[in-house]
Amino acid sequence: VGANEADSFLWNNGSGDSLLQITSPGTYSLQTWNTLGCTAKDTITVAIHGITPHVSFLADTVCFRDSTLFIDSSYSQDQSNLINWQWQFGDGSPPLSVPQSLSLPHLYPDSGQYTVKLTVTTDSNCANYAYKNIYIHPLPEPNFYPLTGCQNLELQFQNLTLAPGGQIISWYWDFDDGSLSGVEAPSHPFSQSKSHNVMLSARDLHGCTDSIFKPVNIKPSPSANFTYSNVCNGTPVSFADQSQTQPYNPIMSYLWDFGNGNQSINQSPNQTFSSSGYFPTSLRITALNACYDTITLPVKVNAIPQAGFTWTNACAGSPTQFQDTSVISLDTINTWYWNFDHGWSLSIVEGPKVTYNDTLIHIATLRVKSKAGCEDSTSQTFKIHPSPTAAFTMDREYGLPPLTVNFQTSKLSNLLTYNWQFGDGFNSTQENPTHIYLDSAIFHPQLKVENTHHCLDSISHPVYVIYAAVDIAVITVISTIDQGYAFFSCEIENRGQQKIKTMDLTANYNGGQPIQEQWSGELLPGQKASYVFQAKIKVSGTPAYYCITATPQNTDIPDEHPSDNSLCKEYEAKLWVGS
């Protein structure tokens, strides 16, 4: 009391401070002076009941709307007991006194800094206190825009969140349609036209989180679609709008982009493309509510095929092979129409064969159609060349190995090559070769000839390099006499295994001077041949008998039954056999 007027102090212990801290009981006196020289003196007796307690506490730092937990750590410094704790939270709330040490939660009404005071009293009636400043972090303030969009269109959200407590480190969006996002400003399409309760949650670097729900109205969008006509290059493509919308939300505008630099605002336009191929054509429609939709389809302009063909072996009497060489892009040719001087014929064959028996100039026309129905045609003239005729003879057709056979071709003009295959693995390119067969078998030598026009022909004859029996039988003889001359005829049968080409035939009567002629041809085994002699014999009187004899030629094998090579007959028609 009066310390404010005093200028100097003197305690009985010699201290000159205005305050004196004592630690033991006793009598204490103080004398003071002011600047006017006035003095005052006082003496008191102090009794100490105990030592003040040590006061301290802990408090965590939390976010707004979270309770702060206060943990008391005070203790007694003598034998006294702590009996009262009084909390003053610094937010204007009434002091809170509790009779025991507790972990005490407290919810602050706002963010910011608060000074908290704790006063602790012992049962010695000694009290002490402590202060601590705590901080409540403010929450993020989520917000976003826009609140309206169109069905099936990307809605770009703007994040308007404020961060009074520090940097936002994470975002969480829930679009109320099963879709989520963790980016700051997402773009999201809504498939249903209705009000969606969209939530945005923000978290700052202190871990403080807050959320906001806002209704986002999604308006119905039209549905774009179109069809187009299937055309060939050079024909305009007709586009037909097939878009759909609600009756109360009509389509107000159309915008076509044909992928070739051209556009149209007509509902169903036509467009001519400069080439074939695929053109990414898009249609954008906008409805009355300003919502729009776009569809892009690959519009195909079908290519026109380029017809073409070649041919080989244009030879008379042989099939001429035609081969389609037509080409087309982005499609396939599946129909061929061929015209070979006798009208159109439909064929699914790309390369038909046609046989001509003349050597004239002809015209072939090919018309091709693609799978898409596009057509092209081309015509070409070509000449049919004469074909060679392969032919040869052999001096031996039968015999035992080693059998030497001389082959002789027919003389043909314009022949380019001869190709012999003797049937035993050997060949020759000579015109008239000779070949020796060393093994026993029936061989089939073949001759292939090619002329200067590359026309071909071939022929084959068998060669019997085996034992083949020879047996010629004269089975019928006839002789007539007219005006003094005898005329003869006979029938001969080949009873052997060889083909007979030449026979010597003789005829006489009464064993006299014969006439001899030669038969040539082909008499196969089992066949019969009739022969009429050209010569005649002058007779006098009536002959008793006549005979006709057949002898095979050009064979190394003797006749197995020479007895039937001759047949004699009496003029009285009595038949007898002679040797």
Task: Provide key terms for this protein.
single chain; 579 residues; mainly beta; five-stranded mixed sheet; rod-shaped; disordered C terminus
Characterization of this structure:
This protein is mainly β. Helix content is 0%, strand content 51%. It contains no helices and 52 strands. The protein has a five-stranded mixed sheet, with no helix packed on it. Strand 41 (446-451) and strand 42 (456-460) form a beta hairpin. The chain is rod-shaped. The chain starts with 7 loop residues before the first strand and ends with a strand. Residues 573-579 have low confidence and may be disordered.
Distance between the termini: 192 Å
Biggest β-sheet: count, sense, barrel? 5 strands, mixed
Portion of residues in beta strands equals: over 45%
How many DSSP-defined strands?
52
Tell me, rounded to a whole number, the average pLDDT: 92
* Helical content (DSSP H or I, runs of 4+): under 10%
Helix segment count?
Answer: 0
- What is the approximate shape? rod-shaped
Structural class: mainly beta
Low-confidence spans = 573-579
